[in-house]
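Hi R.,

Here's the chain you asked about this morning:
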Amino acid sequence: MLRKTIAVIEDDQSIQDILRITLKAANFEVIQALSGKQAQELLLTNKVDLIILDLGLPDIDGGDLLLQLRKVTTIPVLVLTARTEINDKLALFNKGVDDYITKPFEEAELLARVMAVMKRTYNITGYGRGTYQSGALVINLEQQIVFKDGNQLHLTKNEYGLLSSLFQNPQVVMDYSTLIRNVWGVQILATQNETLRVTTANLRRKLGTFNGEQYIGTDIGVGYRWKFETKIIE
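And the predicted structure, written out as tokens:
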């Protein structure tokens, strides 16, 4: 499956940078425009799967641009707006917006809304090939990124290595020495046992729980195991 392309139409360069980094980390292609005129040129020459549109553009009101877009395309549009009045929000839906998010926004919420629109429109997750689901987690081996409930988790290299070793062997107890070799590539050492314990504790904290249970179980004196089923989704 080809990666989906998102057009970001926003005149604030700092917000552009945040959106570009966030969306690329989630395996999307990103093209950018700083004005309505640039956006129109961009959309004529590029195949776009979703538009993120700021209302406060320097050369045209974003709402007016939305109306123009709806006359020629059904590409889903997610609006960025500082307007919080209910009448303003209702007006957006009347103009054909698919979703909106108010400024200032959290990157995690924006990404979750993008994923939801993508899933409704294209019946895909947008996470990319080599993607697995386990509990509330979505894990992309190719990109080495992990999402929980649509929000990207920030794992260290060793935490990701431990996660990768465990979730690919669900319900199997992996002994301490095997995990240490997989993650650190060294023979078993007394100090590595403590390092493994700390890394596991940190990973558990970041993953949280699913249906009230932790993802990683402990077989005391033996090793750790991944407690939930894993299935490939892309």
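The CA atoms of residues 135 and 210 lie 6 Å apart.

Let me know if you need anything else.
M.
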